[in-house]
Design brief:
Belongs to the glycosyl hydrolase 38 family. By secondary structure, the chain is an alpha+beta fold. It is built from 13 helices and 51 strands. Among the domains are: 293 residues, Glycoside hydrolase 38, N terminal domain (7-stranded beta/alpha barrel, Alpha-Beta Barrel); 256 residues, Distorted Sandwich (Beta-galactosidase, Chain A, domain 5), CATH 2.70.98; 85 residues, Immunoglobulin-like. Helix 10 packs antiparallel against helix 11.
């Protein structure tokens, strides 16, 4: 080394522990127990082995103690002494598939568990294996007092030195250490392996010394400071018992280096004091493709479209907990109602977070792993549903019963999100089988229940019958003990009603028998294959595509909902297509169009199309097979009265192997140069034009990129937003003349890590996807878009009184049957959470500002406020906020996340 400067090197011992991946959780746990057993012996017998970290995770502690409870005190002593570092995560997640709130809860859970071990979580964002990094992560980290971060993927050595500052859109900043391109967090392991497989000869010792020297010199060559990080933490590797020897050899091989067995917090403290000059700043998301081909540095961009049933189950569980169970639970508890033990919501979240590990939620593991995940999702759904139903049942049971005559009953319709619900709603009404008034049209027709709906003031509420299930049976929605737990057989009517429902509240209707059938007159349909409401006009072409007219701007959008299919020869991580590919489009298909619902409140069309596709990919001939089969796609398109978006649901009866299916939406926003993608606490603006310089990189820039639930493209005069409640997270805009918005529906692939037996990745089953299309002019109407998203993610929750109350408690109180509890009055900030505070002190409400300028929101709550305090994401109190009565004004800087602690008056 020509440079004579002295470098301080921190040797970091750890392991990268995927709980499940190419082996199942139980198989990996068996190995993890062996690792920790050995680690405890090593650290107790050898004080020179100073420290070890558990991959930034805390979930592995319980994994170990379930098997070795007798070793708890030994483990606790090493954790309390600071020799074993835990956290800050509960499990190391992917950062693009889980939602924003899930990332916060992951860190919050890691912090809670560390405190239970009488220590603090490691104050370093250890993100060594994430597949890119969203824009707001620095703000999230700073919200937990984390000011440093280890990362690799999404950056390249050619333009990123070892140290840089990473800044989020609100200007929060963290100091980052970039892992090297070649081996990332496992770079030290190559030299370690040379030592371990040496035969003791001088030649083998020299090979090991040279390997270690090459590694350290490379670290010096890319460093912009005088502090080096030598990470020895490769996947599923036990600690190096000869760490002292490696350190001694390193200092001999590199005379300018002084090595200590250290920790990541100590490394960053040393580095911050010895950085060279101005440290570069990177802003926004880190998603650069890999330039050079290396074993470690891959962005791995397509895992967001792998195994979409996992993504759908995850998104549904997150929405259930965040938008329904937690807000209702917080309201109930503040009213003095005990719903469930406090530990139960934590169990639901911890079970869900286990599925967020980067090799789990990404869909890149073996089939057995992903089957285990579906079991966990089921457990979360069951817990979340019962928490929600119990809270709603207990809150509403204090209201008065509206049904006063025989056979009348109260229907309580709850909107869980903090924005009012206005317009056409779809609800289910369960009638006892002995409903007294049953009639039919003319002499021979279907026998229907005759009933009316009235609100609490006696006003008639019109309805439109959408479907009837003559006999319906299920276990009670509200879990109860005893023989009545199976519920009461009923007839279920699905109806559309025009309702105004308070924000985070409910409206009650009384269902009454009447002497004659009640018909809904008129229709939104204005032609055989067309319909319109106050805002939109739509029609269906012969090939099944949609034409949509925005009545406010007059702009027309045509050829919407075109299906595109091509070969898929990739795996859970990457999409790949054959060089001899055939891209099939539904443009020339002949669609069968039906009318499913036809009335004044809702019109639904059914569009069935069949694509003639190659059955599979022939891996011997390296092209799609000559034999073909029909892929049937059934899409329902619903236009509701008052709606500003067209709601769609597609069922793909997948019987084709080795293919990728996408939806295309030409926006014709011809002047658009960028598009918006929803990510955790942000709407990221991305260029439409691809980076041409990546054509010969290891990975090329792709038009398809991750998003959470919303993507949009517009040029001022016209724009198109695609709103997706769950499952589909890969989209983008094609750099074509029509500025085509695209969304991957699924990828069917057979290649699975470490196994040729797995077939679940082929997705050979009926697949269901839901989305909404919203045209706009000018800037994206963010509040309206998120109102539509939340309405789809959090459908109305219903409870009844009377014979079919499905376990819910009787309405025995005297309170008003219509109540609202929490509302965002201005629509400037976006709702993220309403939950009981972790420490039991009041309620936590979290909002975020999607705008590039400051904004404020008036938040109205359900009780008089005793105090309101801003706090960080770790729920540590900050500045006091002025509150008056039940309202508090929340101000947010551009792109800022605001967390508020509310305590109510007695």
């Amino acid at each position: 080394m020509a440079n004579s400067e002295i470098y301080s090197a921190h040797y970091i011992s750890g392991t990268h522990w995927d709980r499940e991946w190419y082996r199942t959780y139980q198989e990996f746990r068996l190995l993890f127990v062996d690792l920790v057993d050995g680690l405890l012996d090593l650290m107790e017998k050898n004080p020179a082995f100073k420290s070890f970290h558990f991959d930034g995770q805390t979930c592995v502690l319980q994994d170990y103690l379930e098997v070795r409870p007798e070793n708890r005190d030994r483990l606790a002593a090493l954790i309390r002494s600071g020799r074993i570092l835990i956290g800050p995560w509960y499990t190391m997640p992917d950062l693009f598939c889980p939602g924003a709130e899930a990332l916060v809860r992951n860190l919050l859970t890691g912090q809670r568990i560390a405190s239970a071990w009488s220590t603090s979580a490691m104050p370093v964002a250890y993100t060594c294996d994430m597949f890119g990094h969203p824009s707001q992560m620095p703000q999230i980290y700073q919200g937990f007092g984390i000011s440093s971060c280890v990362l690799g993927r999404g950056t390249n050595e050619y333009d990123t030195p070892a140290f840089f500052h990473w800044q989020s859109p609100d200007d929060s900043k963290v100091l980052c250490f970039k892992l090297q391109d070649k081996m990332g967090y496992g770079a030290f392991n190559k030299a370690r392996q040379e030592f371990e497989r040496g035969d003791g000869s001088e030649e083998s010792h020299e090979r090991a010394r040279k390997s270690l020297q090459d590694y350290i010199e490379h670290e010096i060559s890319r460093s912009n400071g005088r502090v080096l990080c030598l990470i020895d933490a490769l996947d599923h590797m036990p600690p190096a018992s000869d760490a002292a020897k490696y350190i001694a050899v390193a200092e001999t091989a590199c005379a300018q280096v002084r090595v200590s067995h250290s920790t990541l917090p100590a490394f960053f403290a040393d580095a911050a004091a010895h950085l060279d000059g101005d440290i570069p700043v990177k802003r926004g998301e880190l998603r650069d493709p890999a330039k050079t081909r290396n074993g470690y540095l891959w962005l791995i961009p397509n895992c967001v479209s792998s195994r979409i049933r996992l993504k759908q189950a995850n998104d549904a569980c997150q929405a259930l907990l965040e938008l329904q169970a937690e807000p209702l639970l917080a309201i109930a508890q503040s009213l003095g109602i005990s719903v469930v033990p406090p530990r139960l919501p934590q169990i639901a979240w911890e079970t869900l977070l286990l599925n967020h590990a980067h090799d789990s939620i990404c869909g890149c593991s073996i089939d057995e792993v992903h089957r285990d995940m579906m079991y966990r999702f089921d457990q979360v759904e069951q817990l979340g549903r019962q928490i929600r139903n119990r809270a709603l049942g207990m809150i509403s049971s204090r209201c008065r019963e509206l049904g006063t005559a025989p056979h009348e009953f109260t229907l309580t319709v709850c909107n869980c999100v903090p924005r009012p619900w206005t317009g056409s709603s779809v609800i289910d009404i369960d009638f006892p089988l002995d409903w007294p008034n049953k009639l039919c049209d003319a002499f021979h027709s279907q026998v229907l229940n005759a009933f009316i709906l009235e609100d609490a003031d006696g006003r008639r509420v019109p309805y439109q019958i959408l479907a009837v299930e003559p006999r319906h049976a299920e276990r009670t929605q509200y879990a109860v003990m005893g023989w009545n737990a199976t519920g009461t057989p009923c007839s279920r009517y699905t109806v559309a009603v025009d309702l105004d429902i308070p924000a985070t509240g409910f409206r009650s209707l009384v269902v009454k028998p009447v002497a004659s059938l009640q018909r809904s007159m008129g229709s939104l349909r204005n032609g055989p294959c067309s319909a319109e409401n106050e805002h939109l006009a739509m029609s269906i072409a012969a090939n099944g595509t949609i034409e949509l007219r925005d009545k406010a701007s007059g702009q027309i959008y045509s050829d919407l909902m075109l299906f595109e299919d091509r070969s898929e020869i990739g795996d859970g991580w990457f999409h790949g297509q054959s060089a001899s590919d055939e891209i099939a489009l539904s443009a020339g298909n002949s669609a069968q169009i039906s009318v499913v619902h036809d009335g004044p409140l809702a019109v639904t069309f059914r569009i069935q199309t069949t694509m003639d596709l190659p059955e599979r990919y022939d891996f011997h001939l390296e092209r799609r097979s000559e034999s073909r089969r029909g892929l049937t796609i059934v899409t329902t398109v619903t236009l509701r009265r008052g709606a500003r978006a067209l709601e769609c649901h597609s069922e793909i009866r997948n019987n084709i192997e080795d293919h990728r299916l996408r939806l295309l939406f030409p926006s014709d926003a011809v002047a658009a140069q960028s598009w918006l993608a929803h990510h955790p606490y942000d709407l990221v603006e991305r260029p439409i034009r691809l980076r041409r310089e990546t054509a010969d990189w290891s990975e090329a820039d792709l038009a398809e990129k991750p998003f959470l639930h919303l993507q949009a493209v517009g040029d001022g005069s016209r724009g198109l937003a695609l709103i997706v409640p769950g499952g589909m997270h890969e989209g983008g805009v094609v750099d074509d003349a029509r500025r085509t918005l695209q969304m991957t529906l699924f990828r069917s692939y057979r290649r699975t890590v470490g196994s040729t037996a797995g077939r679940d990745g082929l997705e050979l089953c009926p697949l269901h996807v839901a989305f909404a299309i919203m045209p706009y002019a000018g800037e994206l109407p963010v509040a309206a878009a998120f109102d539509q998203l939340f309405a789809m993610q959090s459908p109305l929750v219903l409870r009844q009184s009377g014979k079919c109350r499905s376990g819910y408690p009787e309405l025995t109180g005297d309170q008003a049957p219509d109540q609202g509890f929490m509302e965002l009055l201005d629509g400037q900030l976006i709702f993220s959470a309403c939950k009981n505070a972790d420490d039991g002190r009041g309620v936590i409400v979290r909002l975020w500002n999607p705008h590039a300028q400051p904004a404020q929101e008036r938040l109205r709550l359900w009780q008089d406020i005793a105090s309101a305090n801003g706090c960080d994401l770790a729920e540590r109190d900050g500045e006091a906020l002025a509150a008056e009565g039940r309202e508090v004004v929340v101000s947010a800087e551009a792109k800022q996340i605001r967390t508020i602690r509310i305590q109510f008056k007695d």
